[in-house]
Specification:
The chain is of the alpha+beta class. It has a single domain, classed as 3-Layer(aba) Sandwich (Aminopeptidase). The chain is built from five helices and seven strands. The chain is globular. Bound molecules: acetyl coenzyme *A.
Length: 157
């Protein structure tokens, strides 16, 4: 019998060798790429992005695991835009696991680990009303729209 369980989420730093896992996650999230009007990246694009990421000491990226299963990805930058800030560029929950509280739990986990940062920004790309509603529901407020396709949200930590 299953019953109610609260499973822990684990944030595992993404290594270059995780590129196939991250690529699989992207392919399992077709709705997101449709929403932002892009093709899901190919494996080579994922590898290139991970190399870029690892060359920037302020960037952080984690696979989100629940019981050894990849259920999401998070990518953010420390000390950006200002020294006391952090900026979330992508929180992605696997499409078949969205709407089950994982996004909220992952965000809470992240905020609990941003020791020292005073503010967390979230940059929402494209026409993504669900993401905007999600961040507003998690205590973020809209700051500004930057360019045609970027909306900035922020909350104090
Ligand atoms: N429409 C409106 N609000 C919703 C929806 C929806 N379809 N789904 C969830 N919410 C709200 C609910 O009110 C919920 O509130 P509750 O905690 O009181 O129940 C709250 O959001 C949290 O819901 P979760 O189940 O935790 O949301 P989820 O696990 O689906 O994570 C996320 C939200 C990250 C937006 C996820 O749906 C996702 O990965 N979407 C595709 C990728 C994406 O757009 N990511 C954000 C890009 S922008 C950025 O990361 C800075």
């Amino acid at each position: 019998m299953g019953g109610m369980r609260t499973l822990n989420l684990v944030f595992r730093p993404v290594l270059l060798q995780d590129a196939p896992l991250l690529h699989e996650l992207y392919l399992a999230c077709p709705g997101y790429f449709t929403l932002i009007g892009m093709e899901p990246p190919g494996l080579e694009d994922v590898v290139r992005d991970l190399v870029t990421l690892q060359n920037d000491p302020r960037r952080r990226a984690f696979l989100i695991l629940e019981e050894d299963e990849v259920v999401g990805y998070v990518d953010y930058k420390l000390h950006y835009p200002e020294a006391q800030d952090a900026t979330l560029s992508l929180l992605l929950i696997r499409e078949d696991r969205q709407g089950q509280g994982l996004g909220r739990r992952a965000l809470a986990h992240l905020m609990g680990h941003l020791a020292g940062a005073e503010r967390l920004y979230a940059v929402v790309y494209g026409n993504n009303p669900r993401a905007k509603a999600f961040f507003q529901g998690q205590g973020f407020r809209h700051v500004k729209d930057g360019g045609p396709a970027l909306s900035w949200y922020v909350r104090e930590l």
